[in-house]
Specification:
The chain is mainly α. It is 62% helix and 0% strand. It has a single domain, classed as Heme oxygenase-like (Heme Oxygenase, Chain A, Up-down Bundle), CATH 1.20.910.10. The longest helix has 26 residues.
Amino acid sequence: MTLTILDPSRARRLKAMTHHSHDGVDRSIMEAASFDDVAGYARFLAVQYLFHRDIAALYDAPVLQALLPGLAQRKRLALVEADLADLDLHQPETVQAPLFSGAALDVPTALGWLYVAEGSNMGAALLRKEVAKIGLSDSFGARHLAPAPEGPAAHWRAFTAALDAVEIAEADEPRTGQGANAAFLRVQALIDGHID
């Protein structure tokens, strides 16, 4: 009989569980020439707005703020809105309510969604170089891609340390992976609807 030992890091387990869907999202964004010009970036920004609108309530949830120190300061929706305003773009219209609305939430599922949202900050370092080529910066048009003052790696390590420290019943743990995969599927659906 072979005994499987789970990685003690929830963040590493989520990375392994979402590898395929994460790669698909990255590939879709880059193949769509999202950073070749401002028009392509505007489509990418629409995806960012809709995703961050979906999850904004998670950053305001007291139960999650208690588990993840500094969570409220990580919220990026206002930065995405400022980027849209910089480029004289309207917020994308949608008839769908945000996926999370501040009502009762499932903590394990929410942690999976936040893992995806916060992980995107690591990829933002590469994207910042691309948007600089089309005249955008941390202070104009690409504010939401700007790194945290302590740097993206330290910002990510602080988040994953807190994420790994959250105590969840073993029976509830699979919902973190389900939440993370659902988040990547949501981003992919937004890409398919606004970029492709």
